[in-house]
Fold:
Amino acid sequence: MLDYERSLPLDFEESSCIEKDGYTVRDVSYLSPYGGKVPAYLVVPDTGGPFPAVVFMHPGQGSRITFLHEAEALALKGIVSLLITAPAMRSRSPKDLSEEQKLNLMIETITNIRQYTQTVVDIQRGVDLLCSFGNIDLNRLAYIGHSLGATWGGVLAGVEERIKSYILMAGFPSVSEWHKTSEHPLAALIRAKLPREQFNKFISELEPLNAIHYINKATPASLLFQFVHDDEFVPKHQADTFYSVASSPKEISWYKTDHLFTNCDSAYQERTQWIIKQLGINDN
Structure:
């Protein structure tokens, strides 16, 4: 289900770039094996190389711009970053929709299994892109994902051998369980709106994609889990399960903030220090 043909052309394009002090932010795209273009930012240090690299995937409330500030900070330490916008966030909703139509469109998007498999494959295709550049150190590749990016990053960790280190922030080991049991208003709304047969079909197709089936196969990659106390989306038992079933080496940290890690400098500092150490960067 997650296989794709790596011989497909990347069709890499750069539409613009912004030169900053010490690095360049490039507005790029590449071809998705599922069709269409994957919009991304490529943040590249001005000098040095071969560079280690980090692939970022945002939460469901974000886009490729979400982690741009972190990527720019990493560029100043000699690290390339590729920041991808997930498939569900690439198209704009039609204008002048009623509230009911907007709600139905949101539910249709959330229950579209294809977008989830495409998310994983498009990230792998992003790794292909990095590997096609002559200035990337292929032995020093890392991944940072938040919420949506952590949930599907857990799947990625079980199928993508080129990435050596993963930071997974507030992700689900079993997103199908969340849909079936969560009392969060969004989960309850989807259960209420979908006909029972349609909901059951969605769950049966989603269950094999749960990260719990993949994260135990991440070895030898290193894993850092970042979770939030009293997360409105991710209950503690799911967080504990994600960590407990994951392969080693692994670490876990907890924070007092919200699901989006709003103004949580300690989490930012810890993952920055961890990723720098994993990539073998001299941060003196």
In short: Strands lie at 13-20, 23-31, 37-45, 51-57, 80-84, 136-146, 165-169, 222-228, 250-255.
